[in-house]
Amino acid sequence: MKKRSGFTVMARLIRLVKPLSGYMVLAILMGLVGHLCAAFITIFGGFAVFDLLGFATPVALKTTFVCVLLFALVRGIFRYAEQSCNHFIAFKLLALIRDKAFRALRRLCPAKLEGRDRGDLISVITSDIELLEVFYAHTISPAAIAALFTLIISGVVQLVFLGYP
Description:
Elements: H1 6-15, H2 21-52, H3 61-108, H4 110-113, H5 118-138, H6 140-162
Helix pairs in contact: 2-3, 2-6, 3-5
């Protein structure tokens, strides 16, 4: 049997997401908006502190509090929606993987499934497949969100503090 690298295995697992790529894009966009809202909660909190200390700020204190509340509400909604999309993708793919695995088992080893350790074999396969839920629901879109968030915030910092693109 040929040894596969971790990168190769992950690339094959990610390719399984292709039929659900619309949901993945939606999850990434909602996660990105949610993280931007979380960042702006902190930024507007800083504005409120500066306003209370007597410094000039781009927005009034009342507007700052309204914006923080709005950002918090939007953040919660988008976080829930992102996680819903991620888990929808994960559970759809887990069902597909389970179907493929058990179909292969039925075809390849009917004698093994009739032995006395058949429950152990099924248990190992099922638990290994369940571990993929973490990969699909908590790895792919968060990595993409982190990369996009970093690019956007870096661009904003460059524009605001350095004044050029």
